[in-house]
Amino acid sequence: MATASPVTDVDARHDYLLRLGDDSLVLGQRLSEWCGHGPVLEVDISLANLALDLVGQATLLFEEAGDGDKLAFHRDVLDFRNCLLVEQPNGDFARTIARHLLYTTWQHKLFQRLTQSTDRFLVEFASKAVKEVAYHRELASEWTIRLGDGTGESARRMAEGIDWNWRFVPELFEVDEALQDLIGQGIAPDPRDFEDEYRSAIAGVLAEAKLEQPADQRPILGGRRGHHSEHLGHLLAVMQFLPRTYPDATW
Amino acid sequence: MSHDWPLWEVFVRTKGGLAHRHVGSVHAPDSELALRHARDTYTRRMEGVSLWVVPSAEITASDPEQAGELFEPAESKIYRHPTFYNIPDEVKHI
């Protein structure tokens, strides 16, 4: 904890905890939508496990930022700071895997660097979470390769999945003033430092999957400022319904 | 989809020094994903430190019809059981 920091730093740190936490929470909620609907039992369990890892990460980050339940269940769309990629609908299994590959490859590289942060909480958090994310990234890569280099239909669906999610990649490397401030203090890693590494890692998986890398599209930004796609509102409505309707409910 | 996938038998070593034990089976398209499915299905609650997966089709099983000739002859040979020794309390996993 940076107890002696000026107020602006505390705000920037709080905002950063929400960015990381909202990414994990929203992606975890998305994956949990597969529960009971997975293409096969084994994949159903596997996706639910990934979802639980992510919700666990969000819990740690929110508890550090304040009242975890309040942050998860009592904020509106505009207050969420997740990137647009993680809120995109599941689509079919291939599109879910494409989203997971593109996000967790980034998250893995970020968390690896976050273990060197000057912020003690973030170091402890990242040291635990980086192992979970390494598994997510490997699993998503394995599935991308199998579907891409599989049947005609699986290859077509995998290519469509990558295409759909591709325009949300540039946002992952966006650095605004708040983030720049934390980078300056050594609290947050600069994502631009690993953009080349990220792009060649993704290119490697796509090549092994015998998939074309999509042409760069017009990037869509804004999630970190609370400008979300319509999809996030629907996701939050499902996720927040119960605690908002019965505020004192316990289980 | 899973109908096309072969079945794999899963063995988990619960801690160093113990043998891998059969815990169940998973469907998977190949051995690498079978390991991941086994991890996600059978070691969610810290049950293991090591995993084996074996194609179920590679297992040769004894014929239940032959159970009599295979196993009954052992029934009358009580002297084969080491029941005449006292096992110290400190010795586990026997």
Describe this structure in words.
The complex is a heterodimer of chains A (251) and B (94). Chain A is mainly α and 251 residues long. Chain A has a single domain, classed as Ferritin. In chain A, 66% of the residues lie in helices and 0% in strands. The longest helix of chain A has 29 residues, at 120-148. The two termini of chain A are 31 Å apart. Residues 1-6 of chain A have low confidence and may be disordered. With 94 residues, chain B is an alpha+beta fold. Chain B has a domain at 2-61: Phenylacetic acid degradation B (Ubiquitin-like (UB roll), Roll), CATH 3.10.20.520. Chain B has 2 helices and 3 strands; from the N terminus they run ββαβα. Chain B has helices at residues 31-42, 67-71; strands spanning 7-13, 21-27, 50-55. Chain B has a 3-stranded antiparallel sheet. In chain B, strand 1 and strand 2 form a beta hairpin. The longest helix of chain B has 12 residues, at 31-42. Chain B starts with 6 loop residues before the first strand and ends in a 23-residue tail after the last helix. The interface between A and B is medium-sized, with 11 and 15 residues.
Low-confidence stretches of chain B: none
Helix content of chain B: 10-25%
Based on the structure given, which CATH architecture of chain A is correct?
Up-down Bundle
Can you tell me the residue ranges of chain A where pLDDT is under 50 for at least 5 consecutive residues?
Answer: 1-6
**SSE pattern of chain A:** HHHHHHHHHH
Strand-residue proportion of chain B: 15-25%
CATH class descriptor of the domain at 2-61 in chain B: Alpha Beta
Kindly provide the name of the CATH class of chain A.
Mainly Alpha
Oligomeric form: heterodimer
Number of strands of chain A: 0
Q: Helix- and strand-based class of chain A?
A: mainly alpha
CATH superfamily of the domain at 2-61 in chain B: Phenylacetic acid degradation B
What is the distance, rounded to the nearest whole angstrom, between the alpha carbons of the first and last residues of chain A?
31 Å
Radius of gyration of chain B: 18 Å
The chain pair with the largest interface is: A-B, 11 and 15 residues
Give me the CATH architecture of the domain at 2-61 in chain B, please. Answer: Roll
Mean pLDDT of chain A: 94
| Straight-line N-to-C gap of chain B | 42 Å
Average the pLDDT over all residues of chain B and give the rounded result: 89
> How many runs of DSSP E, i.e. beta strands of chain B?
3
Largest sheet of chain A: none
